[in-house]
Amino acid sequence: MGDMSGIVVGIDGSGHSERALEWAVREAGLRQVPLTVIAVHQPVISHWGSAVSYPEDHAMTVRIRDAAREQTDKVIDRLGEGTPPQVNINAVSGSPAEELLVAGKRADLIVLGSRGAGGFARLVMGSVSYQVTHHAHCPVVVIPADDR
């Protein structure tokens, strides 16, 4: 993995997170710092309350990473010049807030959408952006939803 400094953006495949991704790509391009895209899906929670790992969890992670890579490539193509010098795509299974905070430990900036229509919205533990902004070691930019 190496050093994760640069900009970390959390996406969940929703329109809101697409805007966060665009902002993060542009910002990483301007600063000429690496961009790490984190796509999170939640593991299945058993009725005992613990996360259960199923074989299809891995397939899901691979699918999500591919989708995130495709979405990121599209954004980079669309923006054209001034792209980040390096782009890492990580798909993780777990709690979005936790994963973003871990990834953001050495980052210069964490970028999120204010709410996702996908996985992030269904979190029982409260809003991801709330948790991340309160616990991050670096500045956090929350891109507001485009509700026009």
Automatic annotation (TrEMBL):
<comment type="similarity">
    <text>Belongs to the universal stress protein A family.</text>
</comment>
<dbReference type="Pfam" id="PF00582">
    <property type="entry name" value="Usp"/>
</dbReference>
<dbReference type="InterPro" id="IPR006016">
    <property type="entry name" value="UspA"/>
</dbReference>
<dbReference type="InterPro" id="IPR006015">
    <property type="entry name" value="Universal_stress_UspA"/>
</dbReference>
<feature type="domain" description="UspA">
    <location>
        <begin position="7"/>
        <end position="144"/>
    </location>
</feature>
<dbReference type="InterPro" id="IPR014729">
    <property type="entry name" value="Rossmann-like_a/b/a_fold"/>
</dbReference>
<protein>
    <submittedName>
        <fullName>Universal stress protein</fullName>
    </submittedName>
</protein>
